[in-house]
Amino acid sequence: MFKEIISRLKQGYRTMEFPSSEIKLPHRFQGLPEVNPGAGMGGCAEYADVCPTGAIAAPEGKPVLDLGRCIFCGKCAKLYPRVFNFSREYKMAARKREDLFLRGEAFKRAATLDEAMKRLFGRSLKLRQVSAGGCGACEADCNVLQTLSFDLGRFGIQFTASPRHADGILITGPVTQNMKLALEKTYAAVPGPKIVIAAGACAISGGIYAGHPETAGIPAEIPVDLYIPGCPPHPLTILDGLLRLLGRIE
Ligand code: SF4
After folding, report:
1. Which atom of ligand 1 sits closest to the CA of residue 50?
2. Nearest alpha carbon, ligand 1 atom 6
């Protein structure tokens, strides 16, 4: 018993400070992409062709990167480093789908809920996680938020086992045809007012499954309040998005 206590004392406090300027991300981490619309404009069609998810388009001859479709494979930045670059910025959640289209302008981060919703959920938010055909990666990064490193519970945010105990749902996966009904029933079971969060490229746009007949996507009658990009999103991206939504950080 004493051995355990001594070992615990030696370990000290293991939960990271958040938000913090001291956060260390792994060297392989690829954050918010940067688009330079002024560089090498001649090859726009080629940029679009290299992207495996069709995240790059070139309307009006200028590259636009859809962060909601990007799986962060890094191919565009490798082939066209003057046009695309991956920063180390993990803060990339947005409130509106259109804010995820990157055109080389400053990224519009997620804004806080309106006052009434903030009063309800700002200090305590319970979420039901719906894995709607996900591969397990986004789900794993939601799980890891509940470990002692991140300790999501200290912010008053918890995942619940039942939608009837939840204030909203967090959706991962492309929403397969098989999961569409389950998602609709889960959403209906959450008492209003409620919030909806789409986490990961699949939930936001279908990701690599976009356009497949088995991919239904989030039904239009389920309005999304927060989009968290990534494939999967880094746990810090999820945490940052949730806290911005609740007005805990700005
Ligand atoms: S990093 Fe994103 S935008 Fe670039 S090629 Fe890969 S999926 Fe497409």
Report:
1. 5
2. 73
**For the chain, percent helix, then strand, then coil, each to nearest 5?**
35, 15, 50
Kindly list the domain boundaries of the chain, sorted by start residue.
115-245
- Measured CA to CA, the distance from residue 75 to residue 92 in angstroms comes to 20
Distances (CA, A) of 80 to 28, 44, 188: 19, 10, 45
Q: Which atom of ligand 1 is nearest to the CA of 74?
A: 1
Q: pTM for this one?
A: 0.95
Q: Which atom of ligand 1 is nearest to the CA of 30?
A: 1
Check pLDDT > 90 for residue 44: no
Residues with CB under 6 A from ligand 1: 50-53, 55-56, 65, 70-76
**Overall CATH class of domain 115-245:** alpha beta
What distance in angstroms lies between residue 42's CA and the mean position of ligand 1's atoms?
19
Bridge partners (DSSP) listed for residue 130: 171
CA–CA separation, 72 and 200 (whole Å)? 11
pLDDT in tens, 72-88: 999 999 999 999 999 99
